[in-house]
Write a structure and sequence with these properties.
By secondary structure, the chain is α+β, with helices and mostly antiparallel strands. It contains 13 helices and six strands. The chain has four domains: 57 residues, no CATH class; 122 residues; 65 residues; 120 residues. It is elongated, with a radius of gyration of 40 Å. It holds the Pfam family SNIPE.
Length: 412
């Protein structure tokens, strides 16, 4: 059949006449058909068209209803939309959340046991019997409560802090569905019970967020302890080396004095004074927990051209710390742009972090010391903050392993 344009077969009298003429021509080409049959065929098409329009409208209405009931639960989408998590009910620690959850669960159990979770009609009759009616309402209420609790328990079991709103929406839809299905007997979830289960979801999300926060803090503390222990061992090794050297020189000094070599003895005495000063410096460094090196490093192959890490170490050999950071967790070694010693390295590091706060890569976990900045940006900042402490700075990262890997890839 030829295609028809516009608003259908019957947009008006003129359109109808045009369509009839087209139909007659089409029928004649097929062998002939009288006008009455064409008119009947046209009327049938009209009725079919109206039926299709009605079906489309009904399907559209049902689709919108289903879309209204659908709650977005796709984790990837929820993660993309997740912002910084805000606690709904701030408590001191994960233990406090767990205790509160235990209290809430006990209250949920009590409401269910007392028949105050799902309510229904009190005057429903079955075959004229109020008792049978109450039994039916009670049985249906139990069924609805089981369905609601299944949805709530699943939300609790699969909870992630960023999924909280989605879980609450799902529970709201469950309430709406129970109202719809239990309409004839006025069956519905009680407001107190629903609020309690939403409170449970909020506490669960808070508990999981606090638990992860505490785990991250524990990880950071352990890392700090390992760093402090490594520094302590370095101090002990250096003091042991200096004392061994001091013993060697004292022994040599005694021999020179026994020989009467005053010139040689004076030279060794000067050396012993240097060693004594070095020991004092190491002990002072060990005692001053704020003294150390602030380092500025980058890893082009792992993080790109415009990302730097700014940290602090108390090690006597700060490059050891940099080498540790470039272990198996990243594909390439870090490049060092600056090592700045300061009696208050903790304060210097803090000032640098504060100045670059809006450029943090991780805006949630502030223990991650990566920033969107070039080495040159940090150099300019250091010249203002560190002043005379900034003796040497390298703007351009060598990134030797990364460049060699790119070359090998192209050559291959």
């Amino acid at each position: 059949m030829p295609e028809r344009s516009g608003g259908g077969l019957f947009g008006g009298k003129k359109r109808l006449e045009a369509e009839n003429a087209e139909l007659r021509a089409w029928v004649e080409r097929l062998g002939g058909m009288d006008a009455m049959r064409v008119s009947a065929m046209t009327e049938a098409l009209h009725v079919e068209h109206q039926g299709l329009q009605t079906a489309i409208a009904d399907s559209t209405r049902r689709l919108r209803e289903v879309e209204r009931l659908i709650v977005q639960t796709e984790e990837t989408v929820l993660l993309q939309e997740a912002g910084v998590y805000e606690y709904r009910h701030p408590l001191t620690d994960a233990v406090a959340y767990k205790e509160r959850l235990t209290q809430v669960k006990a209250r949920i159990k009590t409401l269910s046991k007392d028949g105050k979770a799902v309510l229904g009609s009190t005057n429903w009759q079955v075959n004229g019997s109020v008792a049978e009616g109450r039994r039916m309402v009670r049985d249906f209420s139990k069924l609805m409560l089981r369905a609601y609790n299944a949805e709530a328990d699943n939300c609790v079991r699969t909870m992630r802090p960023y999924k909280l709103q989605s879980a609450v929406d799902r529970l709201e839809k469950a309430v709406e569905m129970i109202v719809k299905l239990g309409k004839t007997m006025s069956i519905h979830v009680s407001g107190d019970y629903h609020r309690l289960r939403v409170y449970e979801l909020e506490l669960t999300a808070d508990y999981l967020a606090k638990q992860e926060e505490e785990k991250e803090r524990t990880r950071a503390q352990r890392e700090q302890q390992r760093e402090e222990e490594a520094a302590r061992r370095e101090f002990e090794r250096e003091k042991a080396r200096l004392r061994k050297e001091e013993l060697h020189y004292r022994s040599a000094l005694s021999k020179l004095l026994a020989k009467g070599d005053e010139a040689g003895a004076e030279e060794l005495k000067a050396k012993l004074e240097e060693i004594g000063a070095a020991v004092s410096d190491v002990e002072a460094r060990e005692a001053n927990v704020r003294a150390g090196y602030v380092y500025v490093i980058s890893n082009v192959g792992a993080f790109g051209q415009d990302v730097v890490k700014i940290g602090m170490t108390r090690r006597l050999q700060p490059e050891d710390r940099v080498r540790e950071l470039g272990d198996a967790s990243v594909p390439f070694k870090f490049d060092t742009h600056a090592l700045i010693f300061s009696d208050d390295a903790v304060g210097l590091e803090g000032r640098l972090h504060a100045a670059l706060n809006d450029r943090r890569v991780n805006k949630v976990n502030l223990r991650r010391e990566f920033f969107y900045a070039t080495p040159a940006d940090v150099r300019d900042l250091l010249q203002k903050i560190a002043g005379q402490h900034l003796l040497e700075y390298r703007d351009t990262p060598e990134a030797l392993e990364w460049h060699q890997s790119i070359h090998a890839k192209v050559a291959g």
